[in-house]
Design goal:
The chain has about 475 residues and is of the alpha+beta class. It is built from eleven helices and seven strands.
Length: about 475
């Protein structure tokens, strides 16, 4: 073939290299796992929510939506899910032929002939074959790999959704812990105003000779203790908002928190909740998929005992090597393992061991799921009982303080009795405030234990106050 055609061939090779390269759509890749995270979450929300304004009121739903959209932990786990999708594509590609352009340029030294003249034999050759290859049979290992990778995709998807529920619950905890601290601070500020007024009053009584120095010291000590509790509550508010800003990646340090989430008035019985958890817990579903993937890994290892057959063929687009008249050639190759020094056996034994591990992990998690539901339900019922008793305690403490205050003003009780009654009243107010948020968190934790936290949040109204009174 004439040398003048070489530049044309080089142009063709360069074009082939450019065509073979492909640009990856990064946004489309990221959208694969974002669609899983955002599917139906906070229904009727736009795919790209507007930026959160710093002074905008923040509801629980908005906080969870911000965390779901912007938390990097979810993005990292989403990339694992994406990589599992890519691996399945790679496994499927094993069933398809591959075609490569394999140009070969060889050169050798020009040697002298016996007569002293230089050899006229060609010293450089250029061959440009298009080489196609396909695996005709690979001991069923390719089929097992494809099934394994499909199970791995299911595992990664469930792990992604399980992490999503963890992040949502963590955000809800911080949200309500911050609200608890704010409400406690409000109670303490209100109580402190009354106590400061009482300190001024008792000092005036002492100056008039109607109160003892002991009464002044007791009243001042109680006011100081309340002020210390207020400092701690305000510290908890600042820390809570800092953590909430980290989880949501949004400017929420100064925005007002609006609690619109109401706990249902009734829950299904424990056996029904446990059955719901076994069917919906994403970590359990991921463990089941991991066990199935491990079982397919056994088939991959066993497939090494079978023979493999492959076919390759070369179609020469340009050829200078001898014989240059031949335009194509093929090779059918078989490989039958006869002696592998125990390597295949070791792979099979390891795969069976990993399968047993995955099965035991699933069994242990299945038992733990039932335990988690039972504990969560017990915590919720305890929180409800505490609220009922604390309501009684608050009412009694209010009456006790009113009587102690009136008796002190009438000279029938000591200042210590009044201070003690006031301290009990403040304690009951703070405990009841805390218990109400504990009940909400206990309910969210029970929803997480049954694998229904995301469903519950998706079905929470965006602006109003109530949600269904029963849980399916």
């Amino acid at each position: 073939m004439p040398l003048a055609r070489r530049p044309i061939l080089l142009i063709v090779l360069s074009a082939a290299l450019l065509i073979s390269g492909c640009a990856i759509d990064q946004k489309k890749e990221v959208a694969r796992y974002q669609n899983v995270l955002r599917a139906n979450l906070l229904s009727n929300e736009p795919a790209f929510a507007p930026a959160f304004a710093p002074a905008q009121p923040l509801t629980l739903r908005q906080a969870l939506d911000l965390a779901n959209r912007q938390n990097e932990r979810l993005a990292v786990e989403g990339e694992n899910y994406l990589q599992a999708l890519i691996e399945r594509r790679r496994a499927a590609a094993a069933f398809l032929p591959t075609i490569n352009l394999v140009p070969t340029y060889s050169f050798r030294q020009r040697v002298q002939t016996g007569t002293g003249n230089s050899s006229s034999a060609q010293t450089t050759t250029l061959d440009v074959p298009a080489r196609g290859q396909i695996n005709l049979f690979n001991g069923f290992s390719d089929v097992a790999r494809l099934k394994r990778d499909q199970r791995t995709i299911e595992q990664r998807r469930n792990l992604l959704l399980d992490l999503q529920e963890q992040v949502l619950l963590e955000t809800a905890r911080v949200y309500y812990d911050t609200l608890r601290a704010e409400r406690s601070a409000e109670v303490l500020i209100s109580s402190l105003k009354v106590q400061d007024a009482r300190v001024r009053d008792i000092i005036g009584r002492q100056q008039a000779g109607l109160a003892r120095p002991l009464d002044v010291a007791q009243t001042q000590a109680q006011a100081s203790a309340t002020r210390v509790a207020l400092i701690n509550a305000q510290k908890d508010v600042r820390n809570g908002r800092t953590i909430l800003a980290y989880l949501t990646a949004a400017p929420v340090l100064d925005c007002p928190l609006v609690d619109e989430f109401n706990v249902p008035s009734s829950l299904p019985p424990l056996p029904q909740m446990q059955a719901t958890a076994l069917a919906n817990r994403r970590d359990l579903l991921a463990a089941a998929s991991a066990a199935l993937a491990a079982r397919q890994n056994v088939e991959v290892a066993v497939g090494q005992y079978y023979p493999s057959v492959s076919l390759s063929a070369d179609l020469f687009l340009y050829r200078e090597s001898f014989p240059d008249e031949r335009r194509w050639q093929g090779l059918l190759q078989a490989n039958l393992p006869i002696f592998s020094a125990g390597l295949i056996e070791a792979d099979v034994r390891t795969a069976w061991s990993q399968f047993r591990q995955a099965s035991m992990t699933e069994a242990a998690l299945r038992r733990q799921v039932g335990q988690d539901v039972q504990i969560a339900l017990q915590n919720l019922r305890s929180a409800e009982q505490r609220i009922a008793e604390l309501g009684v305690q608050l009412q009694a403490a209010q009456q006790a303080f009113n009587q102690a205050d009136q008796s002190y003003n009438a000279g029938l009780a000591t200042n210590l009795e009044r201070v003690t009654a006031q301290d009990q009243l403040l304690s009951a107010q703070l405990q009841l405030t805390s218990a109400r948020f504990d009940r909400t968190l206990a309910y969210l934790e029970s929803a997480r234990a049954t694998g229904r936290l995301r469903w519950r949040l998706e079905n929470t109204p965006s602006s109003a106050a109530t949600i269904p009174t029963t849980v399916p």
